[in-house]
Prior knowledge:
By secondary structure, this protein is an all-alpha fold. It has helices at residues 9-39, 43-70, 84-111, 116-134, 138-156, 163-194, 199-209, 214-230, 239-246, 249-274, 279-302, 307-328, 331-357, 374-377, 379-393, 399-413, 417-442, 457-475, 478-491; strands spanning 73-75, 80-82, 358-360, 363-364, 452-453. The strands form 2 sheets. Strands 4-3-5 form a 3-stranded antiparallel β-sheet. A two-stranded antiparallel ribbon has the order 1-2. Helix 3 (84-111) packs antiparallel against helix 10 (249-274), helix 3 packs antiparallel against helix 18 and helix 6 packs across helix 7 (199-209). The longest helix has 32 residues, at 163-194. The protein is globular.
Amino acid sequence: MMDALIFTAQDFNVLKPAIILCLFGCAILLTDVFIVRRTGQRWLNGVTALIGEGLLAVVLVQHLAQVRAGGAFSGLGGSVVVDGFGVFFNIVFAMSASLAVLMTARYMEAEGEHRGEYYALMLFAQAGMSLMATGNDLVVLFVALETMALSFYVLVGFLRNSKRSNEAAIKYLILGAFSSGLLAYGLSILYGISGSTNLAAVGDAVAASGADNWAVVLALITTSVGLFFKISAVPFHMWAPDVYEGAPTPTTAYVSVASKAASFALMIRLFTEAYGSASASWVPLLGMIALITMTVGNLAAITQSNLKRLLAYSSVAHAGYILLGLVAFNEAGLRGISIYVLAYVFMNFGAFALVTALRRDGKAAEEVDDLNGLAGRSPGHAILVAIFMLSLAGIPPMAGFYGKYYIFLAILAEGYYLLAVFAALYVAVSAYYYFRIIRACWIGEAADTPASLDLNLGSRVVLVGSGVLTVLIGVLPQRFLDLAGESVLAALR
């Protein structure tokens, strides 16, 4: 019994990413109180966070080498598993957090809320996401999900003097608590069916019970609803537009990319390992939700004039496309999800980095019309906007094309022709509102006092780096596809 309580070197190795993130989060809180606030050098908080991300990158490279050399390895009695899937998504989280940190300093300084707690919460959320991708136990996965969610509730409402931010945080908290309750209920049913919290044991018990067992069906419905909220799938998407609009823009970018990627990682773990034998029951459910999500997301985005709300509904539509990869439930579909998520990091962060920098009379500017005449004032940034919008629309040779390409191939291979037709039609619909943004930059008539771009070094790095990688993944995709392929093989083990 005592042996089970010993924390081994293997356990430490498995948990190193989460440990590093928590340690640096705590370090930021301490240095902010004792050093930063006394010297006024608030940029030190961001530098500390980036040092933590750099150390995390070293650990992830080590984990990737270990996985390639000897396969997956586990710790904490098999509760956490490090494999290609987990390493891939941890890389996505690290890139997302780094980009969000780079975007933060100038924006939060302008809003008068530049404090160390913001960076610490970003790292704590990332620690939760790390375990969501590597967790192999129902309890670990739920605790990790709540660690991420609680951090985001605070980050969304971080602008204390903004009514929009406060309202968004309250809505997010209430709806998030409701979805977490449903998810916890579903996970408790899975524990009741199997008598274990290990995903492999749960999968065996579900297979033995049969897909038509009422307890399995109830668990499937409740866990699905909980996860649909986290990925902003219709009809559980109502929080997304208000949260995206009200939250600080760096938080909006972080939530739209990292939170969605982590929730999909958890969903893939749960559906492939615990519910794999019941795929006949959940594939039609996911197919229907994916179709409705694409429909509502794209049609609602057409009517938006606020950039953040437009990108929120765009994010809803993207969730529908990504769900199609899970509907296909084959290697091409999961490969499509992986490359889609990777491309989504750069094209979405690039778009939000521009929104972060837009200012009119010293205040944040978030309307599509604020981009009018951008090409005349700053042609380089107008070109970057075009790159991000074309990639989000899935136009080749941009990175976003390959995610949709593999997902379309996957659903066609499984014979879901109607879903493929609707998905293709909605690509055309999305092109309308993305090209509307491009049109504003190049053809739109600027106002008498046009919005300006308030860019510091961090924002420029995010914009240029995201633009280059969005193009690079599209033009030279093979290396990125190989990395995504490793993730797929691990998920289907």
